[in-house]
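ERR on first pass: missing label on line 2. Operator R.T. fixed the label and resubmitted. Corrected input:
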Amino acid sequence: MHSAKWHARLLALALMLAGLGSIAYQVQVLNVPLSESEKDPVWIIDAQISFDARPRFPIKVRMFVPPMEEGYTTLNESFVSNNYGVHVNREAGNRQVTWSARRAEGRQYLYYRLMMTPRYGEDQPEPVGPQFRSAPKLDGAEELAAKALLKPIREHSADVETFISETIKRVSDLDNDNVKLLLGQDTSERNRVRLVDLLLAYAHIPAEPVHTLRLVESQGQIPELWLRTFNGEEWLYFNPMTGQQGMPDDRVVWWRGQGELLTLEGGRNPEVSFSFHENEMGALEMAQSLNQRNQRSFIDASLYELPLPSQHLYKVVLMIPLGVLLVLLLRSWVGVETLGTFTPVLIALAFRETQLFWGILLFVTITAFGLLLRGYLEHLRLQLLSRLSVVLTFVVVLMALVSLLGYKLGISTGLSVALFPMVILTMVIERLSIVWEERGANHVIKVGLGTLLGAVLCHFLMIQPFLSYFFFTFPGVLLCLAAVMVLMGHYRGYRLTELVRFRDLLNSKGETRP
Amino acid sequence: MIGWRTRKALRKRGVMGINRRNGDYVLRYNPRSQYPLVDDKIRTKELAKRAGIVVPPLYGIIESEHDIRDFADLVEPHQDFVIKPSQGAGGDGILVVGDRFEGYYRTTSGRIINPEEVDFHLSGILSGVYSLGGHRDRALVEYRVRSTPLFDRISFEGVPDLRIIVLRGYPVAAMLRLPTRQSQGKANLHQGAIGVGVDLASGITVGGTWHNHKIDRHPDTGHAVSGLSIPDWNTCLELASRCYDLTGLGYLGVDLVMDAEHGPMMLELNARPGLNIQIANDDGLIRRCELIEQHLEERGDHPLPEEWERVKFCQRSFAVYLD
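pass 2 clean. output:
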C-alpha cells in the first residue's frame, strides 16, 4: 500500500517535471510567447536614395543591404522604385541591391525598406571568417614606418585581440611621425581605419572593416565603421577610434569591406538617408507570418501546423482535461456531488454553443420537465427502460417546441439548439432519472444542482482565452494536470462538506475514549 | 487548506471521511469481484444459510411468470410474509403482508390489496422496475420479521435494524437504525431514520444521530434513545463477525434485525457502509480501525482467531460503559 503511494508520487513528479520541462523548453529555446498578447519589437528601417539623373545615360545604382547573418530575422524586405529593374545579389559576404533603368530625368527617388526582429535570430550557420591573408606591398619609406610601428605593438601584445587593440591605440596617436607619414594629410576616420587594416594585413592578422547602423529611433544616421576579426569561432568587434572591444547588441552589420555604401552610374549628387522606427507586433502573428514564408519559428512541430478547422477543434478539446480536473477537485476536495466526472464538462461544452444564460435556462426547464414526466409515469408502473424511452421522446419534442417558439419570437440566437447540446441534455435526464430510481428525489435535486454548478464553473474556466491559448501552445501542461490528478487519487483528507457534516462530532465533550 | 483547524480536530478524533473510506478501506479490502455476493439478496441468503448464519427463512423465489401463478400456493401455509426484489436498492419494491382478510392481503400499513395487485407487483419486480439499471430481477418471498416490543418506544412503524461495521472480521462499531415518520417506516438514514450508537462491550445504546445532528430523543416519540440494552448482544456481534469469512469483503456493513421469536438475524450486507455511524457513536472510525489493523499486524501470519475472540478484543478496546 505504501509502496503504491510512493510509486504514484514518483509518477506524479515525473509527469510534472516532463510537463514543466516541455514548457520551459518551448519558452527558453523555441522562444514561444507565454501569452497571446506578448509583443515583439520590430524594427522598420527605411533608406531613401536620391540622385539627379543624367539625361541620355543608362542608370545603375548599387547599394549594400544587410546580409542578415546573425541575431536577427527578416520579416519583410521591399525595394520601391518607379520604372527601375531591381536585382539582389550576394557577393563576398555582402548583399547588394542593383536598381537599373535605361533612361530617367530629374531628381530620382528610390526606397529600400527592411522589417526585422531580434526574435528567432539565434541559430545561424557557423560563421567562417578569414584565416590568413598575404601582406600587401609597401614602398621603402612606408615599409620602414610600418615596421617601426609594428615593433612596439608586437611587444605589447599577447594575442590577436590585444594586438588589434594596441594597433588601434598607436594609430590614434596622430603626433607619431610614422603615423603621420602613413596617413598623409588625410586624418579622417576612414583613412585611419584603412591604416589599421593595412598594418594588420602587413602583420598577417586577419581582420576586416564593417559598416554598421544602430537600432535606435533616428533620422539620417550615418553608418559607423567597426573593425572585426575572426578568432576561429566567432567575430570579435573593435571600435577603430577608441579601441573598445565588443559591439553593442543594437548594432547591425550593413556591409563589410572598403566599398562605398552606394555606387552610382549615370547620375549625380547621390544621397542616402536612413530612418529607423521601432514598432511592435504580436509574437504569435509574427510566427504565423514567418511560417507562411517557410522560415523557422516555433510553429514548426506544434499544433499550429494543423489545418485551421482541426486547430479550432483542438483549442476546445485540450481544455477538457482542465474541466475534468476542476470537477475532480469539486468532488473529492469540496464534496460537491455531480453526475459522474465527465458529464459537467460535457454540459460546459454544450454551454459554449447555447450561451450560458440560455444554456442554464434550457438545462433547468427541460430537466425539470423530464423528471416531472418521469414522476407521472411512475404511477403507471412502467418498466424502467420504457419509462426512460418515453421521457426522452418527450424531451426531444419539448426541445423542438422551444426552438420553434424561440424562432417565432425572434430570439433565434440563443435557442437554436444544436445537435450536441440536445444529445447531452437527453443523456443528463436519463442519468438523473436513474439516480431518482436509486436514491430518491432529494438526491436528484442535490446532484442536479451540483452538476449545474460544476458545469458553470467549467464553462467559465474553459472559455478563458489566455488559458485556451496556453493549453494549445504548450500541450505539455496536460502532463502537469495529469500529475495533479494522480496526486488527487491518493488524497485521503476530508471534503469541505464533511467539515460541516461532522461538526457535531466536535461539539461533544471531546474526550477521546480509551 | 480551508478549515485547517476543523480538519485537525476531526483528524484528532479519528473521524473517517469519504475519501479515506473509499481509498484506504473499500478499495483496499473489498475485491470488486465479490460485490455480486452482497448486491443480490438471494445469493447472500444462500451463502449465509450454508455457513449457518441465521437469516429470515426463505419461503420461495419467484423467477418467472409461471412462478407467479403458483404464488398463492406458495404463501398458503404462511399467515404473513415479505416480498422483496433480490437486487433492489434503498428499500424500494418491498411489500410486507401482515395478515389475510377474506382472500385479500393486508399490508402492515393497513392497506387491503387483492391478489391481482400482488401479481402485478411481482411481475414488476421480475421485469426490473426496482432493480439497479433496469435488469431483469427475481423476487424473494420470506419470513416477516416481527419487531421486538423492546424498541417500540423509540421507533415509529417499521422494523428497526442493527448496522454493524466489520473490519476483517472484527466488529468496529454498531448502530441501531430506527424508522421515523419522515422515513416512512424505512430504516434508512438518508431518508430520515435515526441512528443510535451502541456500546460494543455492553450492547447498551449511547446517543443518536438524525440528519447529521446529534440527538438524545426520538423525534416522533420523544423518548430518550440512550440506555437501552440490546438482547443477545454477543450473538449479534459474532454473527456480524462471521460475515467476513462468508464474503471475503474486509470492510463490510452488516445489517441485522431482532426478531421477537428467533432473535438476531442477518438481513443484508453492504460493501460501502455509510459514515454517520460515527456521529451516532460520537467516535471516529479511523481511531477504531487503526487499533484493529495494529492488532492484526502484531498477530502477523497467524490465522484469524475465532469470532468470540475477535469480539472480545473489540469489546475490550472500544468499551464505552465500563463495568
